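At this stage, I put together a protein sequence along with its fold in token form, as given directly below:
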Amino acid sequence: MAIEFDLQAPWTAIYAKVMAGVLLYGATVHIGNIAGLTGTPWLSTPLLWRLMDVMLLVFDLVVAISLWQGLTWSVWLVFGGISLLQFVPYTIFRSQFSLQPEDAQTLNGLLGTEALLLGIFALLLWLKK
């Protein structure tokens, strides 16, 4: 039995657009990283960091557009993608993303924010059932 998500319900539709905006912001951060505008020169960062910037840029853009359009499959993509592309790398491969001491605090803040955003989204989706 397939799970259906109602992205047309009023609060869920609004929140999906908020999530799309957050993901677009994330895309601009990755563009800034790649362009070398966010501090550390991009080519000086570890290869995994650079690969993640490119993958997350594409992910953020695809998911933001699909959430904005209210495409049902985007729910699976946002939860699965954030889990696999942020929670896993930023915990298991943390040392690759912490070049300076303050980077660990930034990663903790990012993961906490992502958990909160996904938790609210999950609650809105669950309450509609």
Remarks:
- The helical segments are 10-34, 47-68, 73-92, 101-127.
- The chain has four helices and no strands.
- The two ends are 15 Å apart (CA to CA).
